[in-house]
Amino acid sequence: MKATTLAMAICAVSAASVSAQPIRWTIYRIPQTGTSVDFPSSIFTEEAGRPDGYGQRFRTADGRADLTIQAAPNVGSDSPAVFLAKKGPPARIQYKRVTPRFFAVSSYKGDKVWYDRCNFSGRLVHCVLINYPASEERAWDEIVTRISLSLNGG
What we know:
There is one protein chain. The chain has one domain (2-150): Protein Transport Mog1p, Chain A. By secondary structure, it is an alpha+beta fold. 28% of the residues are buried. A hairpin with a 2-residue loop joins β8 and β9. The N and C termini lie far apart (53 Å). The radius of gyration is 16 Å and the shape is globular. The protein is 26% helix and 39% strand. It is built from 3 helices and 9 strands, in the order αβββββαββββα.
């Protein structure tokens, strides 16, 4: 019982740390592609490697969440629906929106929420991929929304 109480306290502190402090936002740009996105630099403080194509992966200092900002060639000139289908997303997607210009999908994987949005322009696909604790989902809602809606391609 004490371990459960401790775990709940840790979750509450983690969730509070996402929303309690003012978030510093900057614009992250991928110079090679013109991709830009509002980036919460006070949350994702550590670089975590490069994705395929162009861009950067980031994570929180404690590793509980990560963000990938990426642009890659749309080799097959696929529509968002075809591109998403080729990626083979899980059957149990909780949220899915597909238009002629973008797709956004989200679901749960273990104790994490994952969210992917990709905008299509010309021969490029501009994406943000975010993973964060499901126990902090409400605290992340506004952050994920701002990142998603700010995504722009060249």
